[in-house]
TrEMBL record, chain A:
Taxonomic classification: Bacteria, Pseudomonadati, Pseudomonadota, Alphaproteobacteria, Hyphomicrobiales
Record-given protein name: Tricarboxylic transport membrane protein
Naturally occurring in which organism (per UniProt): Rhizobium herbae
Alphabetic keyword roster: Membrane, Transmembrane, Transmembrane helix
Start and end residues of each DUF1468 domain: 7-138
Protein origin, superkingdom: Bacteria
InterPro entries named in the record: DUF1468
Segments crossing the lipid bilayer: 38-56, 68-90, 110-129
From TrEMBL, chain B:
Protein name: Tricarboxylic transport membrane protein
DUF112 domain residues: 20-445
PANTHER family documented for this protein: TRICARBOXYLIC TRANSPORT PROTEIN
Lineage of source species: Bacteria, Pseudomonadati, Pseudomonadota, Alphaproteobacteria, Hyphomicrobiales
Keywords: Membrane, Transmembrane, Transmembrane helix
Organism: Rhizobium herbae
Spans through the membrane: 20-39, 51-73, 79-97, 109-134, 140-164, 171-193, 205-225, 259-282, 328-349, 361-387, 393-413, 420-449, 469-493
């Protein structure tokens, strides 16, 4: 199955979901001829058409140059997700120091280069954003900035 | 004459100390970001969205900052293209074709300074063009009602699908995904909750910053990881003679002018940005030189005329991009789409009325484009060596920095874990879409225009009590519908244009 076919099928699935969740959207009182569901359903219809075109007439498959990078991509995605989930519970400084190390290492740093980068980054951006710019960052489990 | 007094007023705003400082900082940061391979203007502006709010800037100041970063990174993109053969952003692809061979011949300094100069000329011409064309267009666009708006947006979408990609269906898909995201949240007309899945986090829609940062900054990191594993061209260390001479300038003057004009007109088209402009300028210049000076043509091996024309076109287009954005409320590129999105966050409705209701904003921005370009020329010729040093910042410092700034940016909006997870999910999703060849810029345009399109459509159909024929009932609308049809049909009917597009926009994002 070529990439385009897969994309087309995904588009069809999305369109189906948009219709399934959008079909029941109706206003209790209609003030206007076009209700709230027309526009989403229209978008879903065009997405479905795009999907059908992609399934029936897929373009040439791109040469997949990135075949050897599946593992780093997975690691990076997992680190990003973990960072998103731990950002609030662990607080800014801890979560940043902890999770930027593997991210730096995915991009070729040694463990101590990663550790220095993440620690410096965590503390300096905490001072810059939280203290200087008044962007309130989550505090750590110990109540302070860690 | 009225225009001149408005412009003078604009300079008053742009020269205010804060705004001047912001324009300078923006120009420097923009050039730095543009230099970094993989980080284009769109990422820089996207990451800036929340910072702008955190700083509590006024709408005109934040627009001035973002515009400076935007045009700055168009300048910066040429540095990595010339020295590294790696375009910092899509519109610098053509720059690398002529610039890198020049650098390998020991003329890196000339290539860099010459391209800075032609970038400046292109920008300056486009900025004058804005001053002349924008008020006229805005006055004309005041007659636009919901009917015309629907047709205009369909025209913009047609330009996006017809001009931008080799696979129009994927651009269309991207636009529709953007429209789909724009419907999430409470419907303004009826109060119905759409696609919120009973989550309180989605009631007022998806945060703009979350989508933009996820789609651009986060997915870019995954792309960077992928491209890092590929081999790189040898980097040019020796810059050679630092400044072009008079003979070289004379040699390229005509090319610069042609490039600037092409860039200006392409940039006005809603939906077509610097990438299309530079590709069109390059092919035009190549044809002109092959016809007039077949012996002297060095295209492909480092022709200064090619370099001059491409950089002039690219920067001219990125400036004239502001015309449709300011006058019609229709952005031409992903970056101007983000700026429009920011304006709506300030509760400013983009559109032709902007020239009347927000003269400070409009003319302050236009004046700051003049000032920004002068600053950029001033810093780009002497400091080019310094900016080139940015290329030695390792990815393992850069990436954590981007992640942290992006995360803080998204978090500063509503302070929820939900938004952070959504950011990562959108980023990974966008990475796969990009791998499958779906461009991201149309998606952002769809998202920004979605609400306006839906409102215009519903208003128009309310006027006619549901009769669809009202959509082509006005002469302006008919013209726009025909133009949209033409843009979509021309590539199908003209195989020559299709071949050009396939070749030219192979690197399109």
């Amino acid at each position: 199955m070529t990439q385009d076919r897969f994309l087309g099928l995904a588009a069809l699935a999305l369109a189906a979901a948009m219709v399934a969740y959008g079909y029941g959207l109706q206003a209790p009182f209609a003030y206007e001829p076009v209700g709230p569901r027309a526009f989403p359903l229209m978008a879903a219809a065009v997405i479905a058409v795009c999907g059908i075109i992609l399934v029936l007439k897929p373009g040439e498959a791109n040469t997949t140059e990135g075949s050897g990078v599946t593992r780093p991509i997975l690691i990076l995605s997992a680190c990003l997700l973990a960072y998103a989930l731990l950002f609030q519970p662990l607080g800014f400084v801890l979560s940043t120091t902890l999770l930027m190390v593997p991210i730096a290492m995915v991009f070729g740093a040694s463990w101590w280069q990663g550790l220095i980068t993440s620690a410096v980054l965590a503390i300096s951006s905490y001072l810059l954003f939280d203290r200087l710019l008044d962007v309130i960052l989550p505090i750590g489990p110990f109540g302070g900035f860690i | 004459m009225e225009t001149l007094s408005y412009l003078a007023h604009g300079f008053g705003i742009a020269l205010a100390p804060t705004n001047l400082l912001l324009a300078t900082v923006g120009a420097i940061v923009g050039t730095m970001v543009g230099v970094l391979p993989g980080l284009g203007p769109i990422n820089a502006v996207a990451m800036l969205v929340p910072v702008v709010f955190a700083l509590g800037l006024s709408p005109e100041s934040s627009l001035i900052l973002m515009a400076a970063i935007y045009i700055g990174s168009e300048y910066g993109g040429r540095i990595s293209a010339i020295l590294l053969n790696v375009p910092g952003e899509a519109s610098a692809v053509m720059t690398a074709i002529e610039g890198y061979p020049l650098a390998r011949q020991g003329k890196a300094g000339i290539a860099l300074s010459l391209s800075a100069w032609t970038s400046f000329v292109g920008s300056a011409i486009a900025t004058f063009g804005i001053v002349i064309a924008a008020p006229l267009l805005a006055g004309w666009a005041l007659a636009f009602g919901p009917i015309e708006y629907v047709a205009l947006m369909v025209f913009a979408f047609a330009c996006l699908t017809g001009l931008l990609t080799d696979q129009p269906v994927k651009a269309l898909l991207a636009i529709m995904l953007g429209l789909g995201i724009s419907t999430i949240g409470i419907d303004a007309n009826s109060g119905v909750y759409r696609y919120t899945f009973d989550s309180p986090n989605l009631v007022d829609g998806v945060q703009f910053a979350t989508v933009v940062i996820g789609l651009f900054a986060i997915s870019e990191l995954l792309i960077m990881l992928e491209s890092m594993k590929g081999g790189a061209a040898p980097r040019i260390e020796q810059l050679g003679r630092p400044l072009f001479n008079r003979a070289e300038m004379k040699f390229t003057n005509a090319a610069t002018m042609r490039g600037s004009l092409i860039g200006f007109f392409v940039g006005i088209l809603p939906g077509a940005g610097g990438t299309v402009a530079s590709a069109l300028a390059y092919t035009t210049e190549k044809r002109v030189v092959e016809r007039t000076d077949p012996e002297g043509s060095r295209f492909g091996q480092g022709d200064m005329r090619g370099l001059a024309s491409v950089e002039a076109a690219n920067n001219s287009a990125s400036n004239s991009n502001f015309i449709p954005m300011l006058t019609l409320g229709i952005p031409s590129s992903g970056t101007t789409a983000i700026m429009l999105g920011v304006l709506t966050l300030y509760n400013i409705t983009p559109g032709p009325a902007l020239f009347r209701s927000q003269p400070d904003l409009v003319w302050g921005l236009i004046a700051s484009l003049f000032i920004g370009n002068i600053i950029l020329l001033a810093i780009n010729i002497p400091l080019v060596g310094l900016f080139a040093k940015m290329l030695s910042v390792p990815a393992w410092i850069l990436v954590p920095f981007i992640v942290v700034v992006s995360t803080i940016g998204v978090y500063s909006g509503k302070s929820t874990t939900f938004d952070l997870v959504l950011m990562v999910a959108l980023g990974v999703g966008a990475y796969f879409l990009r791998r499958f060849g779906v461009p991201m810029a149309p998606l952002i345009l769809g998202l920004v225009l979605g609400k306006i399109l839906e409102q215009s459509l519903r208003r128009a159909l309310s006027l006619s009590a549901g009769d669809v024929a009202i959509l082509w009932s006005s002469p302006i609308a008919i013209v726009l519908w025909s133009m949209a049809t033409a843009v979509l049909l021309v590539p199908l009917l003209m195989p020559r244009f299709r071949r050009w597009r396939e070749k030219a926009v192979a690197e399109q994002d």
